[in-house]
Every structure is written in structure tokens, then in C-alpha cells.
Amino acid sequence: MSYKLIGKNFTPSDLEAKVTGRAKYSEDFRAEGMLFAKLYLSPMPHAKVVKIDVSEALKMKGVAGVLTADDLKEVPPGGNPILTNEPHFVGAPILAVAAVDETTAAAALDKIKVKLKPLPFVTDPMDSLYPGGSNATRIGNVVGAKKKLKEHKWSAKDFAKAGENKLPLGKAVDEWTYGDIDKGFKDAQVVLDETFVTASGSHQCMEPRSSMAYWQNGKCYVHGSVQSSSFTFPFLAKAIGVKPENLVFVSEYCGGGFGSKAYYYPSMAIPPYLSKKLGRPVMLRITRAEEYYLGAARAGFQGRIKIGFKADGRISAVDAYIVQSNGPTTGFADYKNFGNAVSVVYQPENMRWRGIPVLTNTIPQGAMRGPGENQTAAAMEPIIDKAARKLGLDRLAIRRINAPDKDGKFGQKRDPFTSAYQKDGLDIGARKFNWNKKKKLSGNRNGSKVIGVGIGQAYHGAGSNGFDGLVRILPNGKLHIHTGIGNLGTFSYASTSRVAAEVLGYDWKNCVIERGDSRKHLPWNLGQFGSNTSFTMSRTNFVAAQDAKQKLLEIAAMDLGGEPENYHLVNERVVSKSSSSKFMTFAQAAQRAIQIGGKYSGKWEELPKELNPMTKRAVNGVAGSGLIGVAKDQLKKDGVAPALCTGFAMVELDQETGKYEILEYLGVADCGTVMFPDGLGAQMHGGAVMGFGMASSERHVYDPKLGIPANRGLYQQKPPTYLDVPSKLEWAAVNKPDPQSPFGSRGVGEPPLGAAASAVASAISDAMGGHLFNRIPVTPDMIVNVLSGQQQSHKALQVNTQ
Amino acid sequence: MVDISQDNILEGTTRRNFIKSVIASASVVSSSAYLFRSHGASKVWAASSGTVERLISLKVNGQTRRVEVLPQDTLANVLRYKLGLTGTKIGCDRAECGNCTVMIDGVTNYSCSTLVHSVRGREVTTIEGIAPKSGGLHPVQQAFIDELGPQCGFCTPGQVVAAVSFLQRNPKPTREEARSAMSGNLCRCGAYNNYLNGVMKAAGG
């Protein structure tokens, strides 16, 4: 199917602002009389605030005031408070001080006396699960979404039975099963039982999460760094305690999020509260070190998987257990996503999944690009290689036989997919990478350097439904597409807006995207996270444009006679099908819509009840300005929309230094129809680069005795640089349409990372003759230890301690 | 070009006019009120610490800009908070990420780790001074658009400045030379190869 806009490259309208420095991020805004805030951060991993004395600080010239947890609603343990009297991690904000400049605010912090009573803490889930071990909170050590905080311990017997190097299999708090795993293991020719660790790591967005706020005439104006515009709005309004109509939220640019700025986060509410209390605008600049303290992080895993393979490589049974280092808050369901991701990528015939999210006094952990799914990829793919070697199978073949296609199923309930073409992805990748030739290079030596090749695979959900679309045709003939999705840098805000233009047959140069500011009348949209935008927003913009189209046809029929179905849209005109000279331009139709009023111009007596209140406010805001197309996405969706990726990597590993170089990498996406080829390429490459970092260098390190994070700068958790990326970095796509997306698109932001991390991990293992590290990242010292027969410096189960 | 005598600047209301005139001549404007407050704020700091604010002249993007600075002021902070040039981004404030890259006498520098006193009398070029004054974009900026260099865009100003400076030194580089030259600028979105494509395109390669 050929489209006018879908599948074509274009220049997103925000690029010029980005290359000229005119793009304004949250720290680039100023307001008259603006104060600067600094945070007093907890120096202890768990403590009770006994006393705060701010008197000396308030005497200082230039100090305007402080905000403490006493000014805010109390948040019980397990929550993620704005400020707290019971910090649960080093770096938890206890209070904020505002002054005329940052230097004064920082000097004021030195004058503030905070008396803390230290409380028990824990940084490793195993220590907390051990009988008598510390809990991260005074109530307990396990909490999850919709779960009450409680204490959960394993028995000493559980630990003794497992020994030092295997994950104990004590009682889980979550589990599910499908099929009969005992039977599955009986059918297996090879059964592996592997314990693995994946490190926690930071998002390391280039833009720290700074924010600025002020109040005017009872309205609160907030400039925030966030991935999602509309989705952030109600949560921010609630956190600040204002009615939605009294909040103005500006989020036009976001300097990187990767899940850490998915929507509202607590530090964003500090300037609004301080500003309200002090009556002046407040800027809170978050430093790089603070990003590591109070930003967010990917959850670490301590996992164990027993996996049975039949002679042909088909996986007959999986028994998986994930312990998640959760941070001190509800965190994110990475551990659950492990179970689902395994069920998707390998389609086991029988499977049990168990898990526990264990609270730790570490940075609050949240979603990071493929939360759970990408740890799954990095842990699982080298294990699949081990099975292939044992069975004497080709490493591509063992993946192919298990890979999901249209008959694949999701999770415990074995839900269907909207569509899935992972086998095609593997085939396309194998051809383009020339797997059959490259695999023969495995083990080739050049001095101390040896070649390894690997394949990786990753999955993430790729779309949702039920949100609202809003478009407007103005009397000047222009199409305004209102999108509340946000601007994370993927350009999907633009590529999905083109869906509306495609439906109406618009020339793209006659389209305007309204976004990034709540004053622009943005409809209720899902956030820009979870690889969902290309699917979800295609649907919402499609239904809004269909509504506009129907109204155009009705207006033409009203004015020119006949029935709406006697007309069609041609070159921004509504034209009679029987006589091309009988037409009205979109501009004329928009003018008529204003004259006719009612639903045509958004002036309903009663707005369609299925619309979200935010969308209703947006419609009221633009009513009467043109022809309004607005609708809720109620299109059919009866399956899980998957984003699937395959990666092929070749590395050269120096056996003397343990350093390895990625020589080439290819990523293949199964994300339905390709909407914006260059944009998809940027995601495939960018995700791969982040995956290289996950595989090789990025991890949080905590001192287990003091609970202090060692990461305060980028160099301590090194993200890949120009020099870590191969020139031969390629991508491809299956490009088969998804039947439940209007133009066939699914999202794909997250699995490119997991595919790359796992392909590299697989290639490293290959270069070392199949050695399994069962740990991510794989650092040069770990490689040297193995090659020289030394013990690793970490114990098998230790997480975030090396 | 703005030129104003030191005497006038010490007079508060005149100073406001001065700042307005400076801002009017800059390619990116900031709130004059903010700058005014910042001036007052600095005095508070100076009063409390005994540190003296000094008026210096900076040559930024071909203009002489006079600005009161403290001894510890970094170039990045002065550009962003006293001269309204917010295109220069602060990503780490520790000379790690390169988001704050500017040129000093044509050579790339991390402005977050450059004391503003050290650039007196030298030519500072920020992202706002890259495009030709006659309008349009610099070839590097256009090439970065054509090659979809930016994703989130936060590192982009630094990447542009680094590339422009590099191509001035080495107009016909190899890709590996460009990779090496750009390696002081991090991009968390991982758009390195897109940026490199842009550098090579701008070099006519």
C-alpha cells in the first residue's frame, strides 16, 4: 500500500530550533524575580528526621525561605515523596531552600542543621530476604503496584539449599503458570539451570530534571522536563493541589527521558510549592550528581531460570524466578515483564514465572527503556546460545524455531498478538548480516584478539488504545493537529500527526502541530513511553481525522446538495464524485463550520460523553475557530501489540586486556509499517548504542556497608561515546502492516536496546568459547579474570556492588 | 555592537536600559528583569562573602558584551544567566559531557569548566553565533537537519559547535578523524553516526 505521507521521510519542525540553540528546555526559562532553590539531601540511606533548624539560614541576606516535608502532605513508606522526614535513600530530598541566587542557596544549606536518627537499611535484596535481615522501611521490605507494603523473608533452609552460587527459591509473592512444566521438562533433551544478575543502571539523560514554576492570578505555571505533555498534566495538578484549569504546563522539549521522565516525578513539584509559599518564581536546577541520587534507575535483577529444550531446540519448559532490587518505593514491574518477555520471545510450551520486588535503600527505581524486557534479553540470549552448543544447533535456528509469528501468544493467559513477525526479522537480519558467513569467523584470531559473533532478541509492548484525538481545519485552510504526546526526541509526535494529514489528503506543508504547552488545547493522550506512540497516536489521530472528514462531507452535502457519500476529498477540497467542478475548499468548509456551529465547530451543547475531561476542555478552548474533528479511539484492539527486535553483532575481544570492540552491528525491527524511515533508523541506532552501554559499562554501584552510591558523574557509569560505536551500524525493518493500526504501525522505542545488549553479550560469550558470565554488564576485568583462571571479584549473586 | 561606559552602568536605572540594549542586540533574549535581579543577587553574595563583582568585557559572537562577574563565575553560567544565551547547555557541569561546548578563539572548550575571567579579550563563539549573520543556517546545522542528527536535541548545540570548530581546522576530514574530533561530546540518544554523517556531509564528503 502506498501512501502520500506514511512511510516517507520528512523534516520534523523542531529540528531547526534544536540545531540553532533556540529550543528552550526547562532550565532556559526565566521569570521576573526568580529565586533559585537548592535541596538538602539525606546523607543516610535510611533515617528519621529528628529536628530541623533553619533559623541561621533564614537570617542570611538573600535567603527567601525554605520548604520542608511539614509543608506537604505526608507520604507513607513505599511512596515517593516530594520531601520527606524519613529518607529511604542517600540523596532523598529533606528540604528545599530558595535564595536570590544559587550560590546563596547553597551557602544557606550549610547553615541549616538537620538532626537525623539513623535507621536500619539494606542495599542487596538477598540481605533483606535473609531471616532477620534488615527491611528497607520500618513496615516491611516488599511492595508493588496495588500491593500493600509488608515483610517477606525466606528461610535459612532456602539459602542453604541453593548454596553460594544459585538463587535461593524461597516463597515468591507473585507467580503464574501455564501448561505443565513437569511434563515440559520430561520432554526436554537438554535442561539448563542458570543463575544470573543484571545491574541497575541510570538513564543518564543529558538534560538533568530541572524545573521552574511561578504563580500568577491564582494560576500555576510550570516548566518541566518530561517525556509526556498531556499524561503528566493531571498527576502534576494533583501533586501541586491545583484544579486542572489553574495549571499551565510547558513541556515543549525534553532533553532525554528514557523512562526516567515518563510523566510527573516528585522534584517537579518543589518549585510550584516553594513559589506558592514565597510569592516569587522558583528555579530548581538539578545537578548531574543529584540525577544519580534522586533521578531514577533501572531495577537490578537476581534471577534464576531452568529451561528445557527439545532436540530440535524448541523450548518445552521454563521455570523462572526474578528477585528485583526495587529501590525504596513501589518502583516498576520489571520483574513481571521478565515473565511476559520470556513468554513472548521464546514461546515456551509450558512455563512458570515467580518473582519478588524487594525494597532496597537505593535510588528510587522506575521504568528505563524496556524495563524488565531488556534485562531479560541481556540475561537470556547467551543462555540460548549455551543450549544451541549443547544440542549442536545453529544459533539462528534455535531462535527461529521458538520465535513468535502471527500465532504467537502473550503471557500467562496466552493472549493473541495484533500481529508478530519475529521469524521474518531473524531471516532479514541473517541475510543482511550474512550470518552463515560471519558465524564462521567466530574464534578467528589476530594476535591477542579474537572474533565473536552473536544474535540478540528483545520485546516490548507496542501500543495502547482508548485515547482522544483532536484536529482543526481553520478558515485559512490549514490543518492543526493537537497532540499531547510529548517530545522525547523520537519525532513520533510528528510522524503520528501525519496520520491525520494522510486521512484528509493534506499537503504536509499546510499542517501545523500544536503541542508542548497546555495552553495549546491538547487532548487526553497517553504518555510518550512504553514504545506505544506509533500505535496509540496513529489510532487517535486517525479517528479525529475521520471525524473531520465526515464533517467536511456533510457540510459539502448541505451547501452543494446531495448526500455526504456523494463527495470525496481531493487536494484539500471536498469534491462531488459526479462532477469535479462541484466542490468547496477545506478553507470554505472551515468557514461554514464556524457559521453552522454545533458539532461542526466544536460548539456542542453537550460534548460527546466518551471524551476525557481534558479533551473536553481542549475542545471548549478551540470551539468556534474552525472545523473541529475530535473523537475517542474506539477502534478494535483485541490482542497485544508487540514491538520485536533482532540484533546481530560482531566483536573483537582482546584476551590480554579484556577490552572488546564492537566491529559491526545490525538491528532489525518488527514494528509494523515503517512510518518515518529516518526516524526509525535513529531509534534503531540510538537504542543499539544504549544497549552497548548496558552490555559493557553502565551500572549503579553501592557501598553495601554504608549504603552510599558511588556514582556521581558520567565517568563512573560511562555511557557509550563516539569511539564506542562502530561505523558499520545498520538497521532494517520487516515492514509488514499491523492490521489493528490504521496505517499498520506499531511502536518500537525500547527493544532496539535489548536486542543490541543481548547480541553483544552473546558475541562476547562466543569470543570466549561459550563462557557464560550470567551477568550484565560484562567488564574487561571480568573477562581477564576468566581468561586467567582467577576468581571474579564479586560473588555470583551480588548486585550493584562492583 | 554595544558600547557603554562603566560609569553609566553603576547607575541602576541606566543599567536596566543598558541590559535591554544588550539583549535587543543578542540573537536569543532573556528576561531583563532576571538579569537585573541577578545583579542584585550577586551583590548580596558579594556582601556576605567579601568577594567582589567585577565588570569585564567579553567578546561573544562578534559583539562586545560588558558584564559583571564574580571570580568563580564560569563562562557557561555567565552566557546562560547574565547574557541570555541559553543555547549553551549544562549537562554535567564537570567537563564530562560536552553539552556546553563553545569556541574560544576558534578552539572548542567546555564552558562549564572555563572561568569567565580567563576569556577576557578572547573571541567566544556560542551556538547563537554559528549561523551566518545574513540569515539561514551554517552548513553544519543544515547537514545535521538533513541527516536527522538531533533526537532530544539537548547535546545538539555542543555537537554543532564542536563540528564547526573541527571543520575549520580540518575541512576535508576522514570519518575516523571526525569521530575522534567529536568524541568529547556525549549524546545519550546515541545519535553519533547521524551526527558523523552530518559532519561528513558539511565537509562535502
Describe the structure.
The complex is a heterodimer of chains A (802) and B (205). Chain A is of the alpha+beta class. Chain A has three domains: 17-119 and 204-294, Aldehyde Oxidoreductase, domain 3 (Alpha-Beta Complex); 297-463 and 639-787, Aldehyde Oxidoreductase, domain 4 (2-Layer Sandwich); 466-632, 2-Layer Sandwich (Aldehyde Oxidoreductase, domain 4), CATH 3.30.365. In chain A, 28% of the residues lie in helices and 23% in strands. In chain A, the strands form nine sheets. Chain A has a seven-stranded mixed β-sheet. A six-stranded mixed β-sheet of chain A has the order 6-16-15-14-7-33, with helices on both faces. Chain A has a five-stranded mixed β-sheet with strand order 19-20-28-29-32, sandwiched between helices. In chain A, a hairpin with a 5-residue loop joins strand 28 and strand 29 (660-670). In chain A, helix 11 packs parallel to helix 20 (751-767). The longest helix of chain A is centred in the last third of the chain and has 28 residues, at 533-560. In chain B, strands 2-1-5-3-4 form a five-stranded mixed β-sheet, sandwiched between helices. With 205 residues, chain B is α+β, with helices and mostly antiparallel strands. In chain B, helix 2 crosses helix 3 (32-49) and helix 5 (139-146) packs across helix 8. Chain B folds into two domains: 6-129, Beta-grasp domain (Ubiquitin-like (UB roll)), CATH 3.10.20.30; 139-202, DNA polymerase, domain 1 (Orthogonal Bundle). The longest helix of chain B has 18 residues, at 32-49. Chain B contains eight helices and five strands; from the N terminus they run αααββαβββαααα. Classes of the chains: A alpha+beta (802), B alpha+beta (205). Chains A and B meet through helix 1, helix 3 and helix 19 of A and helix 3, helix 5, helix 6, helix 7 and helix 8 of B.
Q: How would you summarize the topology of this molecule?
A:
The complex is a heterodimer of chains A (802) and B (205).
Chain A: H1 15-20, E1 35-41, E2 47-53, H2 55-59, E3 63-68, E4 93-99, H3 102-111, E5 113-118, H4 125-129, H5 156-162, E6 174-178, H6 181-187, E7 190-198, E8 201-202, E9 211-216, E10 219-224, H7 232-240, E11 247-250, H8 270-278, E12 282-284, H9 288-294, E13 297-298, E14 300-309, E15 315-325, H10 334-345, E16 351-358, H11 373-391, H12 395-402, E17 409-410, E18 415-416, H13 422-433, H14 435-438, E19 445-446, E20 449-461, E21 468-473, E22 479-482, H15 492-504, E23 511-514, H16 533-560, E24 567-570, E25 573-576, E26 583-585, H17 586-596, H18 613-622, E27 627-632, E28 642-654, E29 660-670, H19 677-696, E30 702-703, E31 708-709, E32 728-733, H20 751-767, E33 775-776, H21 780-787
Parallel strand pairs in A: 1-12, 7-33, 10-11, 15-16, 22-23, 29-32
Antiparallel strand pairs in A: 1-4, 2-5, 3-4, 6-16, 7-14, 8-13, 9-10, 9-12, 14-15, 17-18, 19-20, 20-28, 21-22, 21-27, 24-25, 25-26, 28-29, 30-31
Helix pairs in contact in A: 10-11, 11-20, 12-13, 15-16, 16-17, 19-20
Chain B: H1 6-9, H2 12-25, H3 32-49, E1 54-60, E2 63-69, H4 75-82, E3 101-104, E4 107-110, E5 123-125, H5 139-146, H6 156-169, H7 175-182, H8 192-202
Parallel strand pairs in B: 1-5
Antiparallel strand pairs in B: 1-2, 3-4, 3-5
Helix pairs in contact in B: 2-3, 5-8, 7-8
